[in-house]
Design a protein that fits this description.
76% of the residues lie in helices and 0% in strands. It is built from 9 helices and no strands. The chain has helices at residues 3-18, 25-32, 36-42, 46-70, 75-90, 99-106, 112-133, 142-159, 163-175. The longest helix is centred in the first third of the chain and has 25 residues, at 46-70. The radius of gyration is 18 Å and the shape is elongated.
Length: 176
């Protein structure tokens, strides 16, 4: 693995596991096994690492969601597959909630660059619901589904239990 990718993956793991504010540059350097000069050659600041982490996470999440959706035939099946993938994500052994919501809770709202990345990602999910529902003329339900998705994601971290996602999925079945 090249140095930049090593730094990115180390920072991503640490930001997700322990949070942005609790992760120091020296810890990233130590765990990545790189020199301080190497880190700063690729990332001028910790916030630059955070932005790259969020951009990579967004790309990966959207590829994953689109792959899940493409395996289904009907719009209702596609919508439900998103909630099924949320359930799968929440059962991973290192599940610590939504990285975007976690970071949004940590950074000051005045950090418009980071907030813009988070908002762009969340809008992509919202747009995915709209795209799925357009063929059946139910795109007006997309915002409700998006809010349910976010609520299920946040509450699954709070309760450390899957009932929130299972309950949300049942609500979604009735909506679509």
């Amino acid at each position: 693995m090249d140095t930049k990718k090593n730094i990115e993956s180390t920072a991503a793991r640490l930001f997700y596991e322990q949070g942005y504010n609790s992760t120091g540059i020296n810890q990233i350097i130590a765990e990545a096994g790189v020199a301080k000069a190497s880190l700063y050659a690729h990332f001028p600041s910790k916030i630059d690492m955070l932005k790259k982490y969020l951009q990579n996470a967004s790309e990966s999440a959207m590829v994953g969601l689109r792959n899940v959706v493409e395996q289904k035939q009907t719009p209702p099946e596609k919508v439900l597959s998103i909630f099924d993938s949320l359930f799968t994500f929440s059962t991973e052994t290192n599940f610590n909630g939504c990285q975007f919501l976690n970071i949004a809770a940590e950074i000051p709202q005045s950090n418009e660059d980071v907030l813009a990345i988070i908002q762009a990602h969340k809008n992509k999910i919202r747009q995915l619901f709209i795209e799925i529902l357009e063929p059946i003329k139910k795109e007006n339900v997309a915002d409700e589904l998006y809010i349910l998705f976010e609520g299920a994601l946040a509450s699954s971290k709070v309760f450390k239990d899957k009932w929130t996602i299972k309950t949300t999925r049942r609500i979604v079945e009735r909506l679509i």
